[in-house]
Design a protein that fits this description.
CATH class: Alpha Beta
Bound molecules: zinc ion
Shape: globular
CATH superfamily: Ribonuclease Z/Hydroxyacylglutathione hydrolase-like
Helix content: 25-40%
Strand order of the largest sheet: 1-2-3-4-5-6-7
Mean pLDDT: 89
Number of domains: 1
Amino acid sequence: MKKIFILSAIALISVWTGLDAPAGQQPPQPPPLTVQNIKGHIYLVKGGSGANGGFFIGAKGVVVIDAKMTAEAAKQTIAEIRKITPLPITHLLITHSDLDHVNGLGGFPPGLKILAHAQTKKDMDEAFQKDEALKPLLAYLPNQTFTDDFDLKGLGEEIRLLYFGPAHTSGDIVVFFAAEKVAFIGDLAFIGRDPLIHKQKGGTSFGLVKALKDLLALDAETYIAGHNDPLTKNDIQGLMTSVEEKQAKVRDMIKAGRSLDEIKAAFGIAAAAGAPAGRSWPSLVEIIYQELTEKK
Ligand SMILES: [Zn+2]
């Protein structure tokens, strides 16, 4: 009986927190979806099922950033947009392919311009193909992709889509509003817990440091991440330093001949850190260890 309870609790948590939230760190129900003005015509979408997203009200239409995790949360987002503007939603920008940023696509009207990095489209395609329940989302695959920086023009103000290379995944983009100095950064930053690197999607910790460096070089004041309140340059700087320190410490311990288990123990990471069955969230230390030992 106890076991059944634990399994269903894990299932419930897994369903809504998605790839980006280790079990046990979030309440079993997402907080209600809310919208907050960040600056000018830029808004943050928080709560509901899935990661933080946002939208920008342009001259002729609304540009939405990320698609939440369920059609219901997407519809709640649209309802909030309707309270602010009657303009149609014209564009969807996808920061990366994780399910808590894309599985709500079906709640949006068809026919939108959907933009993402080419690798993100490939990862979405694979994920949607192999799950019968997600196949309807194939109709929402990005219809405009790019592999480098891309400037979106003609929407009332220039929106820069920046690519800093593989980091959290290999298709992360930053949506940068230069005039307001606001950057939507997907999951390039996690504050208050281990940064997450999806190695299976080509993410790397060394790439993450590079991306954080590039984020610091941007003339930005506000960074909107998928799982935190709005961040500042100081937050990004602190995160970058902590990842670099971990990399240096792991490198030194490898040189000193320590095993992965010894290194994890030195960082206080339990040998069998608990992820639900069938899923795994290796610690950042483990990812760094793999990267450093693979290169040799
Ligand atoms: Zn993510």
